[in-house]
Specification:
With 303 residues, the protein is of the alpha/beta class. Helix content is 47%, strand content 11%.
Length: 303
């Protein structure tokens, strides 16, 4: 661990916190705000990860993903994200459309299962139609310094994905420090492919995506790109519920990585509640009237 930390360099935690506070003070208005809201909608991985998920709920989610709102200029979301058992049901509705199917796998959210079991889950999800796989790393192994084991497991999952995009979830709240988050980011980026993602969180812990851990990972992506030319994508997930938050995250992307990362091939939001607030704010921008939250349902029937 010490060798890896020395290789990638330490994080100035105070500097990170000072920097991200500035993102929250930026004022985005009119045309720029409308552009940002639509961009954020197009970056959403619309997610349902509950034990009570049913084929019917997934069908409703897919309809909302395909048609978030009646306004014709509202973009579709990037993907729907579901458990492996629900992939085949999502495929009935969105396969062949621009909306991709993402599936959490590898014993999500704990990652505590034999590697053989985790790889079998990945292969089945891909066989059922998943375009993207969101895996969790073994945080216990990482914190114990078993870095080769962690990296080998990421490589094995990458190979099991075939042509599917891989998103590597670090679960930043369990990595304890910004230095560990930066180190884990590099550990993953060194073995995943261009266009694959690193991701903050499962959304199943008490602390999820923050501007701070997002910034640490964006900085790592920038430094890795400058050193290798390899373009790695980013996905903050969990806890991003408002359009205001989403715009702050997009400011961080623009100022750290530039316009080349301002698209849904290189940046995503893992969220369930965020989409409705984005739609409310879009409608407010169009009409000038503040929109009530109950006017936006979980499926397309509420419009």
């Amino acid at each position: 661990m010490r060798r890896l930390l020395d290789e990638v360099g330490p994080v100035d935690a105070a500097g990170i916190e000072e920097r991200v506070v500035k993102y929250t003070t930026r004022s985005i208005k009119k045309t720029s705000k409308l552009f940002g809201l639509k961009l954020a909608v197009s970056m959403v991985d619309l997610t349902t990860l509950e034990g009570k998920d049913t084929p019917g709920k997934v069908a409703s989610l897919c309809q909302k993903a395909l048609r978030p709102h009646n306004a014709p200029d509202t973009p579709q979301v990037a993907a729907v994200c579901v458990y492996p058992s629900m992939v085949k049901h999502a495929a009935k509705h969105v396969k062949g459309t621009p909306v991709r199917i993402a599936s959490v796998a590898t014993a999500f959210p704990s990652g505590q299962a034999p590697l053989k079991t985790r790889l079998a889950e990945v292969r089945q999800a891909v066989a059922d139609g998943a375009d993207e796989i969101d895996m969790v790393i073994n945080r216990g192994a990482f914190l114990a310094g078993e870095l080769t084991l962690v990296q080998d497991e990421i490589s094995a999952v990458r190979d099991a994905c075939g042509e599917a995009t891989l998103k590597v979830i670090l679960e930043t709240s369990e990595l304890e420090t910004y230095d560990h988050i930066r180190a884990a980011s590099f550990l993953a980026m060194r073995v995943i492919r261009p266009g694959d993602f690193i991701k903050t969180s499962t959304g199943k812990t008490s602390a999820n995506a923050t501007l701070g851990n997002n910034q640490v990972m964006l900085d790592a992506i920038r430094d890795h790109f400058l050193a290798t030319g390899v373009e790695i994508a980013m996905k903050p997930a969990g806890g991003i519920r408002t359009a205001k938050q989403a715009l702050q995250f997009l400011i961080a992307v623009k100022e750290t990585l530039g316009d080349a990362w301002l698209n849904n091939r290189r940046y995503r939001f893992g969220a369930s509640a965020l989409l409705n607030d984005l739609l409310r704010q879009l409608e407010t921008q169009r009409t000038g009237a503040y929109q009530a939250p109950w006017g936006f349902s979980e499926d397309s029937s509420g419009y």
